[in-house]
Amino acid sequence: MGHPALAADFTANRERARWHDRALWFVREKRDRMATGVPEWEKLRETASAIKRHTQSLMADYLQQFEENATRHGATVHWAADAAEHNRIVLSILQSHRVRRLVKSKSMLTEECHLNPFLEQHGIHVVDTDLGERIVQLREEPPSHIVLPAIHIKKEEVGECFHEHLGTEQGASDPKYLTEAARGHLRSCFCEADAGLTGVNFAIAETGGIVICTNEGNADLGIGLPKIHIACMGMEKLLPRAADLSVFLRLLARSATGQPITTYSSHFHGPQQGGELHIVIVDNGRSEILQSEFRQALDCIRCGACMNTCPVYRRSGGHSYEATVPGPIGSILTPLHSPEQSSTLPFACSLCGSCTDVCPVKIPLHHQLFAMRERLDQQQLIGTGKKLQMKALSVVLSNTWLYSLVGKVARVALRVLPKFLIQNPLTPAGQWARQRELPEAPAKSFRQLYAERQQPGKHSSPDGH
Amino acid sequence: MKVALFIPCYVDQFYPDVGMATVQVLEYFGVQVDFPQQQTCCGQPMANSGCMPEARPLAEKFIDTFAGYDWIVSPSGSCVSMVRNHYDHLVSPSDTQATAVRRQTLELGEFLVQVLGIRSPAGVFPHKVGLHQSCHGLRELRLGPCSESMTPRDSLLQQLLGGFTGISFSQLQRKDECCGFGGTFAVGEEAVSAMMGEDRINDHLQAGTEVLTAGDMSCLMHLDGMIRRRKLPMRVLHYSQIMAQAMQQAGVGHNRTAATQSR
């Protein structure tokens, strides 16, 4: 359908769109307060960006170092070139241990690879254990935000969903009551699980350790009980040294939810006693991005701050992007992967630049969105109508005489033509005029007024050039 | 000092008064400007649409038109940012003439404050003014502090308008959120654009804004469209118009004196 149409649907329910906007703006303001409290905030961002740049320049070396050190701790490292290979690897690990029930903590990578439906096709019961993820899973819809997956759902709707699936009281909407119910339900899932799967926030080359950040402790529960732990990570999650973590852990939760740090930042070095730890490192297009002008998009630590601040995302909702990762960063990553299906995303942006300034790793998001539009034009994906308009505009503006003439005709047209003609909804002027007035056209352009002022008397004709 | 005026195409055609106010303000401060007649557009509509081959002739025309001036001054942060920050996509970095033109292209306030050294000029403007922080001026030219960034910065608009007698500023709930104009975004994403505009207007209404001002007439064209459709008690003026009116009211007519006094 494309972003503009889906966004129009979302904004049509003004009350709900406002509620969504305010919920996310609240998070953005919390982030501001947290950032204000760290005097070296901008230096931290600078440092994080530099660490990422360095890591990317030596990506292959650090990946090897990580594999060696992780293996030394007893983990098994798997390499997946794409989503399909990732899914096959996970399935084969699960099948070799006859796993029927899998608990998962949040992993945007497995969303990217569409792991859940793949495993379910092979008879494996998958439960997402992050509360928000569980809600969207029960509602059979994708997350709408990478950190707050159910931010688009009101508590009354959660109540309905839990009533249907977990047997809570009808009409219940008290968050505490509903959370308790989810907690009870998830505890039994943890106890019954044969294996746990997690994402990875950071992987440390120097130590071979992985770090997983959650607020609910669900990752820890999910891999503490079953003996099999599978950790799936995009290769960009790598950091060179344990010391680098201090920079990123300070930035991550502050940027994401306005907390000083996530409730749990769990470090894993090898499997638990008698268990197995499998780390699946996924490329899925990342090597290609690394070699492109968009390489900084791989610096993303998935904090979601660009979504919380984006005035378009807040008003159009995550689902309007039809992408695993929505919002500004998603509007870069998605067209890199599947430009045909996502060509409207880089244009779902007013180029306000707010995302660039909140990004904790200083990805020049709005500059990349600008550059992505150029790339889509080169791929002939911006639409023939728009391209023709721009070609015509370019011809007119390149010729001063023609520009002055067309400008004058447009101004006269705006003044004399009936509204229904000018505001034909099929034209850009008509689109403009749906909810706002067109500018009032003056009789004379600036250049006319200026020329008259410079040489009084010579330009007395009211409409003269 | 050879100063050229760059009046963005849509200002030339739809807001000639903003261009005239810019001339007046510059003349108040003793600056005689040229308006090279050959100029049209910086190429931003095409570039923002991804159409670099269509934007390129405009960038070349811009460089050609303004080469040889000491400064190119424009009452638009967005167009200035296009020239300074985004011509990388359009002109070669080894073209020294282009690089000079780009470096010397300044937004009006930048020129007044950074080149002329103007601070709090005298004037009278007894109105409650709502400052709309146009994004490209704010986040690309850094004309003021922005709520996302922890780097302290001075607000040029505040410096230029803050000294006027009788002026007061609206306290906004969101002091620098985008208005939703965004060039072709205003049409391509009409629904979101309009909702963003509506939200900005509502913020200014609750804050009691009488005169809504900004560094970019494009934002104001969009917001004014919302205001007029709703028949709201608020009017828009580019800040150069406020300056011209305020200084005229105060009788700051004599060029040199005004410039000297405010240094």
Description:
The complex is a heterodimer of chains A (465) and B (263). Chain A is of the alpha/beta class and 465 residues long. Chain A has 3 domains: 1-33 and 285-382, Orthogonal Bundle (Fumarate Reductase Iron-sulfur Protein, Chain B, domain 2), CATH 1.10.1060; 38-281, Rossmann fold; 399-454, no CATH class. In chain A, 52% of the residues lie in helices and 10% in strands. Chain A is built from 23 helices and 10 strands. Chain A has helices spanning 3-12, 14-36, 41-57, 59-72, 83-96, 108-112, 115-121, 131-138, 155-166, 175-192, 218-224, 245-257, 286-290, 305-309, 311-316, 327-337, 354-358, 365-378, 384-398, 400-416, 419-422, 428-432, 446-454; strands at 76-80, 101-104, 125-128, 195-198, 202-204, 210-214, 228-234, 238-239, 264-268, 276-282. Chain A has a 6-stranded parallel beta sheet with strand order 1-10-7-4-2-3, sandwiched between helices. Chain A has a 4-stranded mixed beta sheet with strand order 8-5-6-9. In chain A, helix 2 runs antiparallel to helix 12 (245-257), helix 3 crosses helix 12 (245-257) and helix 9 packs across helix 10. The longest helix of chain A has 23 residues, at 14-36. The two termini of chain A are 46 Å apart. In chain A, 48% of the residues are buried. The model of chain A is unreliable at 459-465 (pLDDT under 50). Chain B has 263 residues and is α/β, with parallel strands linked by helices. Chain B folds into 2 domains: 3-115, no CATH class; 128-249, Rossmann fold, CATH 3.40.50. Chain B is 50% helix and 10% strand. Chain B has 14 helices and 8 strands. In chain B, the strands form 2 sheets. Chain B has a 4-stranded parallel beta sheet, sandwiched between helices. Chain B has a 4-stranded parallel beta sheet with strand order 6-5-7-8. The longest helix of chain B is centred in the C-terminal third of the chain and has 17 residues, at 190-206. The interface between A and B is large, with 78 and 76 residues.
